[in-house]
Design a protein that fits this description.
Blueprint (H helix, E strand, L loop, with lengths): L19 H7 L2 H5 L4 H4 L4 H11 L20
Amino acid sequence: MAEEVKELQGSNGQHNLDNYKQTYENFDWEEAKKAFSWYDTGKVNIAYEAIDRHAENPNKKDQVALHYVAPDREEN
C-alpha cells in the first residue's frame, strides 16, 4: 500500500517546488538525471553539483549554497 503524500506549506511562500503532489506523481529519475553534469560526463563532481552550479545562477549566486555544521565544534 502506498503511503499518503502530505503537502506542507512553505514558511515564507518562497520555494522552488510549487506542486509537490504533482511532481511526486510525475517524477521520472531518467529525466531528473539529465539535470546533473554526471549524466554527460559519467563522473561526479559534488563540489560543482552543490556549489558551483548554484553560483552560476544569477538569482542564487549571493545565497548560501551549502551550510555545514560540524557536530564536534561550537560556532559563534
